Amino acid sequence: MAASTDIILGTSASIAGILNEKHGPEHLQTLKTFTAALRDVEYRDAVEEKTFSTLVKVLTRLCEELQAAGLDSEDVQTFTLQLQLTAECFRAQRNSCVQSIRNQSLLRELGFIDVSLKLLRFLSTVNMEIPDTIFEPLRCGIQFLGNLAVGNQLCKDDIWMISFPDLFLQLLSTDDEKTVNYTSMVIHTCLDEAKVEDLSKPQNIELALRVMELCRTQPELDWTVLIATQHFLKSSSLVENMYSEMSHHDRVTLLELLLAQLREEGSEDCGIPPSVARFLATSFQKGCGAVLTLATGSASSDEVLQEALTVISLLDVLCEMTSDHKQFMFLQDHPDLLVTTVELLEQVHATGKASKNIFSAAQNFSSFSGDGDSSSYSPVISFKAHLIRLIGNLCHSNTNNQNKVRELEGISLILDNCNIDSNNPFISQWAIFTIRNLLEHNSENQKLIATLERCGTADYSALRELGFLVEERDGTLLLKPVQGSTSRRTRTHRASDIVKQRGYVDILCAAADGSSTAASSRIAHCCGVGQLLQSLSGVITWE
């Protein structure tokens, strides 16, 4: 212990020498020795307050000298040494705080936070030919703040009070990924419910928007994603204020993070307030018409495309919120949400049938095998299927909504959207699911289905392309290989692959003229999903 005491006293004297002498390389070595010694737990706990008091004076002197030299210092060698000394001071401070509440409190009381933040503010404005010369002290200083804040509320509050929002925003805008990442770590460590509410104020919202922009442009930075998912999404006021100020690109990012949060957490633990769900439902209703512009030439505009993609992302979130998340099922009663969804499905469906466009049904299965052209990818993939899914969710065990869909002639509309469509994987399953929810304990809807007349089989050209014919025999549909075509084994594997990859279920007995009002009550099914509809008969049989 005596030897340790001698080392501590010797280090303290050496640091005092840095304060009183002209800076040189030997002083840098002294600080490096101190930094290395602070890795030892016993040494950290034994360092006297006097040593830290001297260190903060050294840091203050460095801050004053750097600021006095200015941004255009001609003595590059001296300026560089001062930056190296500053970085080593920050490293020593960083190491001293590791698992040491005592040292955290000492450094806070001695004024390290204020002088460190002054240095960081200055360093973030300096440009040098060798960027790492500046980035090294920047990174170390921010790491110090992170270690100082961990588990210490007083330090968190002091750092936040001085840095928020301008310095944080300045550091997040630095052209150095590590600096940005470490700053995000400090913000995440300091954040709490009250500070999140501070972020939602108009004068501070730019910082939150910068975090969300980084989530989009640098998704590999984990801390910004954690800030968004663990803090931002839990504040309805912040979500609403950010959303109103965001570009459509960043709105899509926000919605993607929200969707991931809904899927990853337990149904009761996602932390997203009900008011956020209401806001998103209203946003979907107000902006959903933007999707229809994709059917015209205006889709070539990136702004128009991004606005439409925002609507598509909103739909995905609403589908997830109304899928086994009890806390969001009040959306079944959200004013006109169901009406808007049914009407949008009707418009999209009619647009797709009126001419060849992005909403038209397609049988482009080559893209699923990996041989297709990725440039032909549709931005509205699964959009109609998800509209049908949302209708089904909103009608689950809800008689009023079941009746409303019938009154809007939505049942026949849904039945007319069950054919194979490579732009809408699983559309048939979602249609069957939705019809099932519409019929459950609803005699009026069941009667409507029972009155539908059979008008022949629907177009099954997609199956014919796979080498199969559909034939009716004694009220049953038979699936037969076309004579002289590719071997049955090859055809079967191709058809099976498509069913496995995309989950298609085809209504083969829709109206012969394609109209929705005369849709047949015979639904062909695969994979056993037809059992969902006891009131609808008809099985496709392989021969």
Mean pLDDT value: 85
Distance between the termini: 90 Å
| Multimerization status | single chain
CATH architecture of the domain at 1-190: Alpha Horseshoe
> Would you list the SSEs in sequence order as H and E?
HHHHHHHHHHHHHHHHHHHHHHHHHEEHE
Protein name: Ataxin-10
Domain Ataxin-10: 383-479
Organism: Haplochromis burtoni (Burton's mouthbrooder)
GO biological process, one term: neuron projection development
Describe the structure.
The structure is a single chain. The chain is mainly alpha-helical and 543 residues long. The chain has 26 helices and three strands. Helix 26 (488-502) links the parallel strand 2 and strand 3. Helix 1 (2-20) packs antiparallel against helix 2 (25-37), helix 15 runs parallel beside helix 17 and helix 18 (302-321) runs parallel beside helix 20. It is elongated. Residues 487-543 have low confidence and may be disordered.
Key terms for this structure?
543 residues; mainly alpha; Leucine-rich Repeat Variant; three-stranded mixed beta sheet; 26 helices; 61% helix; disordered C terminus; cell cycle
Give the arrangement of secondary structure elements.
Blueprint: H1 2-20, H2 25-37, H3 41-46, H4 49-69, H5 76-96, H6 101-109, H7 112-123, H8 131-149, H9 153-163, H10 166-172, H11 177-190, H12 193-199, H13 205-217, H14 222-230, H15 236-245, H16 248-264, H17 274-287, H18 302-321, H19 337-354, H20 383-395, H21 399-407, H22 410-415, H23 427-439, H24 443-450, H25 461-465, E1 468-473, E2 476-481, H26 488-502, E3 540-542
Parallel strand pairs: 2-3
Antiparallel strand pairs: 1-2
Helix pairs in contact: 1-2, 1-4, 2-5, 4-5, 4-7, 5-8, 7-8, 8-11, 10-13, 11-14, 13-14, 13-16, 15-17, 16-18, 17-18, 18-20, 19-20, 20-23
